[in-house]
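dumping this here before i forget
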Amino acid sequence: DEHSEEGHIVISAEMINTVDITSLTATSGEIKQRLTLYGTSTTEPSAVSQVRARFPGIITLLSANVGDKVKKGQLIAEIESNNSLMRYSIHAAISGVITQRNANPGELANEQVLITIEDHQKLWLELQVFATQQSKIAIGQSVRINMENQFADSVISQLLPSRTDSQKNSPFSIARVPLDNSQSNWSVGSLLVGSVVVNKLAVPLIIDNSAIQVMEGKEVIFVKNEQGFEVRAINLGLSDGQVSQVLSGLKQNEIYAVKNSYLLKAELEKSSAEHHH
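structure:
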């Protein structure tokens, strides 16, 4: 059962559970300053195997096609040597996916790459860092990687000048971030966003941004009391998209509603409308 009067909402513990309103204790914390960078996912250089024939000869077997998964040690080709006319086998040097096939049985294998195997379990995200941003970026900084609604957390592990010859005079350098792809959530060549934590500021009081509602043009939160919750106008300082600094309206260790706090706002607006009729 719930009812409200003048900014107070009486609500039982059972009801709080039923409608899934969760609360947090107000504490000190950190505001994280972030910088958004953009980049592309690429294969780790050590995770690419280009399969060639050891001795020139005729290809008698080439069993793997583009898109096939192969295991390390698996037989993928047989060649009849021009010199000895003996057949020899070629086995996969790594586990991975066939990404290129450049030959067929009956053709001559010289020194060309027959097939390419890539292991996509671990990828790199190569983020572009422009000259104006370089002073803020450092190895070891936390990065939240996202694409649409998919997220992963990692850290910057390498900073490199821009990579390819065609980009020699490019205005950016590269921040390389390892990307765990053991669940196959990410594909090679995707454009991804990296949100890099470039600074952390300790502040005396923070709240989770999901707690903040707007009523009559003011930012408010709902603070727990013995009967339920009371609405409280607050003044906010710095914010980082996840948490905000509280300047006034809330004290250390007070408990405030976070998840589904909009239900409390709806209840308060409903009862205030009833009072006015």
